[in-house]
Design brief:
Helices cover 46% and strands 15% of the residues. By secondary structure, the chain is of the alpha/beta class. The longest helix is centred in the last third of the chain and has 23 residues, at 223-245.
């Protein structure tokens, strides 16, 4: 069986999911007027914490003090595996953020609940029309003042480890169209958390929030130039971490 680090902890939570978290999230979804976005988000963080503990993952967080307060933020992160969004959201501490979430993955049971709880914007990565509509929906959400977490690599490939894949420039329209502050995020060893079959190993992942990029810094750039700016910031941090790990 593939990715026991994902299926075993999630499977062990199924009794709790079916008797508590799923009924509660479904109730919230049916009575959305009774629960604020913060209420839903707080419950989502409880679910993430349950998953993190069962997966035996510790998150080493750096740079959280760099994230501006009382501003709308678009977070752009590299993408490694199933734990990435959960690890970043768990690292934010009282900074609710929506996620640009792949529609196909949101069809699974726990993912469906989580996408609702964090007020995710779904994007269909299988078609150009679906990609474009997802970006349009994300822009609309950001304009309401919602923070947004985006993975410009789109799909994951855990076999590449901590290496960067290609960034898709189109998603940077979310910043250019809204002129909001950008915070690049570099994750390291996140692919080890819920990919692979070593269910007994304890894993430490790293989440690094990097210096913010203000609108005045990128306002004259096009999508491709902004894409390269953010990618290079993340690339530099990953190389720095790699150097520290292997002096």
């Amino acid at each position: 069986m593939k990715d026991l680090r994902f299926s075993v902890p999630v499977g062990s939570l199924l009794p709790w999911v079916f008797t508590y978290s799923r009924p509660k999230s479904r109730y919230m979804e049916k009575h959305v007027d009774r629960y604020s976005i913060q209420d839903r988000y707080d419950f989502g963080m409880k679910v993430i914490e349950k998953i993190r503990r069962r997966a035996r993952v510790t998150i080493d967080v750096h740079g959280r003090e760099l994230v501006p307060k009382d501003e709308t933020i678009v977070f752009y992160s590299n993408h490694q595996g199933k734990f990435d969004a959960l690890g970043i959201l768990a690292s934010m501490e009282n900074i609710p953020s929506s996620v640009l979430w792949e529609k196909k993955k949101a069809d699974f049971m726990i993912a469906h609940e989580m996408s609702f709880l964090v007020n995710a914007v779904l994007i269909d990565l299988e078609t150009m029309k679906g990609k474009a509509q997802g970006i349009i929906d994300a822009i609309a959400m950001i304009k309401t003042g919602s923070n947004m977490l985006i993975f410009p690599e789109g799909k994951t490939d855990p076999e590449k480890g901590n290496a960067l894949g290609e960034f898709q420039a189109g998603c940077f329209a979310c910043s250019l169209k809204t002129q909001t502050t950008i915070v690049p995020v570099a994750i390291y060893d996140s692919y080890k958390a819920m990919n692979g079959n070593n269910i007994f190993a304890r894993v430490t992942t790293q989440v690094h929030f990097l210096a913010p990029i203000r609108p005045e810094e990128y306002k004259d750039l096009n999508k491709q130039e902004l894409c390269e700016l953010v990618k290079n910031r993340i690339k530099d941090k990953l190389e720095e971490i790699e150097g520290d790990q292997n002096p």
